[in-house]
Write a structure and sequence with these properties.
mainly alpha, about 0% strand, 9 helices
Protein backbone atom coordinates (compact mmCIF):
# COMPACT_ATOMS: atom_id res chain seq x y z
CA UNK A 1 0.00 0.00 0.00
CA UNK A 2 2.82 2.43 0.83
CA UNK A 3 4.44 1.76 -2.54
CA UNK A 4 1.22 2.51 -4.42
CA UNK A 5 0.78 5.70 -2.40
CA UNK A 6 4.29 6.88 -3.27
CA UNK A 7 5.90 6.48 0.17
CA UNK A 8 9.22 5.00 -0.91
CA UNK A 9 10.89 5.08 2.51
CA UNK A 10 8.15 3.09 4.22
CA UNK A 11 7.99 0.76 1.22
CA UNK A 12 11.68 -0.03 1.54
CA UNK A 13 11.28 -0.69 5.26
CA UNK A 14 8.37 -3.09 4.83
CA UNK A 15 9.76 -4.76 1.70
CA UNK A 16 13.02 -5.40 3.55
CA UNK A 17 11.09 -6.90 6.47
CA UNK A 18 9.17 -9.12 4.07
CA UNK A 19 12.37 -10.21 2.33
CA UNK A 20 14.00 -11.03 5.66
CA UNK A 21 10.95 -13.04 6.73
CA UNK A 22 10.87 -14.92 3.40
CA UNK A 23 14.59 -15.68 3.80
CA UNK A 24 14.02 -16.96 7.35
CA UNK A 25 11.13 -19.16 6.22
CA UNK A 26 13.02 -20.47 3.20
CA UNK A 27 10.31 -19.13 0.88
CA UNK A 28 12.54 -18.67 -2.19
CA UNK A 29 9.88 -17.50 -4.62
CA UNK A 30 8.57 -14.91 -2.17
CA UNK A 31 12.12 -13.79 -1.48
CA UNK A 32 12.74 -13.22 -5.21
CA UNK A 33 9.66 -11.01 -5.46
CA UNK A 34 10.46 -8.95 -2.35
CA UNK A 35 14.06 -8.38 -3.44
CA UNK A 36 12.79 -7.37 -6.88
CA UNK A 37 10.34 -4.97 -5.21
CA UNK A 38 13.25 -3.44 -3.28
CA UNK A 39 14.95 -2.90 -6.62
CA UNK A 40 11.88 -1.20 -8.09
CA UNK A 41 11.63 1.21 -5.18
CA UNK A 42 15.36 1.92 -5.31
CA UNK A 43 15.10 2.62 -9.03
CA UNK A 44 12.22 5.03 -8.46
CA UNK A 45 14.33 6.78 -5.81
CA UNK A 46 17.09 7.19 -8.45
CA UNK A 47 19.37 4.81 -6.57
CA UNK A 48 20.37 2.93 -9.69
CA UNK A 49 23.38 1.13 -8.19
CA UNK A 50 21.25 -0.23 -5.33
CA UNK A 51 18.47 -1.15 -7.77
CA UNK A 52 20.88 -3.03 -10.00
CA UNK A 53 22.25 -4.90 -6.99
CA UNK A 54 18.74 -5.94 -5.89
CA UNK A 55 17.89 -7.01 -9.44
CA UNK A 56 21.04 -9.11 -9.68
CA UNK A 57 20.19 -10.71 -6.34
CA UNK A 58 16.67 -11.47 -7.56
CA UNK A 59 18.07 -12.97 -10.79
CA UNK A 60 20.43 -15.23 -8.83
CA UNK A 61 17.57 -16.33 -6.58
CA UNK A 62 15.28 -16.93 -9.59
CA UNK A 63 18.00 -19.02 -11.24
CA UNK A 64 18.20 -21.13 -8.08
CA UNK A 65 14.44 -21.66 -7.95
CA UNK A 66 14.04 -22.10 -11.71
CA UNK A 67 10.82 -20.06 -11.80
CA UNK A 68 10.56 -18.73 -15.36
CA UNK A 69 8.28 -15.83 -14.45
CA UNK A 70 10.71 -14.64 -11.80
CA UNK A 71 13.61 -15.04 -14.25
CA UNK A 72 11.80 -12.88 -16.82
CA UNK A 73 10.94 -10.23 -14.24
CA UNK A 74 14.54 -10.03 -13.02
CA UNK A 75 16.02 -9.97 -16.54
CA UNK A 76 13.58 -7.29 -17.68
CA UNK A 77 14.31 -5.19 -14.59
CA UNK A 78 18.04 -5.53 -15.24
CA UNK A 79 17.51 -4.54 -18.88
CA UNK A 80 15.51 -1.47 -17.82
CA UNK A 81 18.07 -0.32 -15.24
CA UNK A 82 20.81 -0.89 -17.82
CA UNK A 83 18.98 1.46 -20.19
CA UNK A 84 18.88 4.10 -17.43
CA UNK A 85 22.61 3.59 -16.85
CA UNK A 86 23.23 3.66 -20.62
CA UNK A 87 24.87 0.25 -20.41
CA UNK A 88 23.51 -0.74 -23.81
CA UNK A 89 25.26 -4.08 -24.29
CA UNK A 90 23.94 -5.32 -20.96
CA UNK A 91 20.46 -3.94 -21.71
CA UNK A 92 20.39 -5.79 -25.04
CA UNK A 93 21.59 -9.03 -23.49
CA UNK A 94 19.02 -9.06 -20.67
CA UNK A 95 16.09 -7.92 -22.81
CA UNK A 96 16.79 -10.51 -25.50
CA UNK A 97 17.12 -13.26 -22.88
CA UNK A 98 13.80 -12.20 -21.34
CA UNK A 99 12.03 -12.08 -24.71
CA UNK A 100 13.40 -15.50 -25.69
CA UNK A 101 12.27 -17.04 -22.42
CA UNK A 102 8.82 -15.45 -22.71
CA UNK A 103 8.33 -16.67 -26.26
CA UNK A 104 9.40 -20.21 -25.40
CA UNK A 105 6.98 -20.22 -22.47
CA UNK A 106 4.07 -18.36 -24.12
CA UNK A 107 4.28 -15.48 -21.61
CA UNK A 108 2.95 -12.53 -23.60
CA UNK A 109 2.61 -10.23 -20.57
CA UNK A 110 6.27 -10.68 -19.65
CA UNK A 111 7.26 -10.29 -23.29
CA UNK A 112 5.50 -6.92 -23.50
CA UNK A 113 7.60 -5.56 -20.61
CA UNK A 114 10.78 -6.65 -22.38
CA UNK A 115 9.55 -5.27 -25.74
CA UNK A 116 9.19 -1.83 -24.17
CA UNK A 117 12.84 -1.99 -23.12
CA UNK A 118 13.76 -3.19 -26.63
CA UNK A 119 11.95 -0.13 -28.00
CA UNK A 120 14.02 2.16 -25.79
CA UNK A 121 17.19 0.45 -26.96
CA UNK A 122 16.12 0.83 -30.61
CA UNK A 123 15.39 4.53 -30.02
CA UNK A 124 18.89 4.97 -28.59
CA UNK A 125 20.33 3.23 -31.66
CA UNK A 126 18.39 5.69 -33.85
CA UNK A 127 16.30 2.85 -35.27
CA UNK A 128 13.20 5.02 -35.24
CA UNK A 129 11.07 2.63 -37.29
CA UNK A 130 11.74 -0.35 -35.00
CA UNK A 131 11.36 1.74 -31.83
CA UNK A 132 8.01 3.11 -33.00
CA UNK A 133 6.86 -0.34 -34.04
CA UNK A 134 7.73 -1.81 -30.63
CA UNK A 135 6.10 1.04 -28.68
CA UNK A 136 2.92 0.78 -30.77
CA UNK A 137 2.85 -2.99 -30.30
CA UNK A 138 2.96 -2.57 -26.52
CA UNK A 139 0.28 0.16 -26.59
CA UNK A 140 -2.08 -1.83 -28.83
CA UNK A 141 -1.84 -5.19 -27.09
CA UNK A 142 -4.87 -5.88 -24.89
CA UNK A 143 -2.61 -7.72 -22.44
CA UNK A 144 -0.62 -4.53 -21.73
CA UNK A 145 -1.21 -3.42 -18.18
CA UNK A 146 -2.05 0.25 -17.74
CA UNK A 147 1.34 1.42 -16.38
CA UNK A 148 3.13 -0.35 -19.22
CA UNK A 149 0.78 1.11 -21.82
CA UNK A 150 1.24 4.57 -20.37
CA UNK A 151 5.04 4.25 -20.45
CA UNK A 152 4.95 3.01 -24.05
CA UNK A 153 2.72 5.95 -25.05
CA UNK A 154 5.09 8.38 -23.36
CA UNK A 155 8.10 6.75 -25.06
CA UNK A 156 6.35 6.97 -28.42
CA UNK A 157 5.57 10.65 -27.81
CA UNK A 158 9.23 11.32 -26.98
CA UNK A 159 10.26 9.48 -30.15
CA UNK A 160 7.93 11.67 -32.23
CA UNK A 161 9.26 14.75 -30.48
CA UNK A 162 12.87 13.74 -31.21
CA UNK A 163 11.93 13.21 -34.86
CA UNK A 164 10.35 16.70 -35.06
CA UNK A 165 6.75 15.52 -35.43
CA UNK A 166 5.10 17.86 -32.90
CA UNK A 167 1.48 17.05 -33.76
CA UNK A 168 2.07 13.29 -33.42
CA UNK A 169 3.98 13.90 -30.18
CA UNK A 170 1.19 16.06 -28.78
CA UNK A 171 -1.41 13.42 -29.64
CA UNK A 172 0.63 10.70 -27.92
CA UNK A 173 1.24 12.86 -24.85
CA UNK A 174 -2.53 13.43 -24.60
CA UNK A 175 -3.17 9.69 -24.90
CA UNK A 176 -0.51 8.98 -22.27
CA UNK A 177 -2.06 11.54 -19.94
CA UNK A 178 -5.52 10.06 -20.46
CA UNK A 179 -4.17 6.57 -19.69
CA UNK A 180 -2.45 7.89 -16.57
CA UNK A 181 -5.59 9.73 -15.40
CA UNK A 182 -7.69 6.62 -15.98
CA UNK A 183 -5.30 4.54 -13.88
CA UNK A 184 -5.19 7.18 -11.15
CA UNK A 185 -8.97 7.38 -11.09
CA UNK A 186 -9.36 3.61 -10.75
CA UNK A 187 -6.73 3.56 -7.98
CA UNK A 188 -8.57 6.35 -6.20
CA UNK A 189 -11.86 4.41 -6.45
CA UNK A 190 -10.14 1.27 -5.17
CA UNK A 191 -8.82 3.11 -2.12
CA UNK A 192 -12.34 4.16 -1.12
CA UNK A 193 -13.76 0.62 -1.26
Amino acid sequence: AYYRMGDADKSVFFFQQAADEARNLGAKNDLVRWVLALGLVSQEMNQTAAAEDYYKQSLALAQQSGDKGDLVDAMTALAAISVEQQNWDQAIRYSQQAIGLCRSDGDRTGELDALLVEGKIAAHQNDVVRAGQLFREVVADPQSEVPLKWEAQESLAELYEDEHHPSDAARQYKLALATFESARSSLHEEEFR
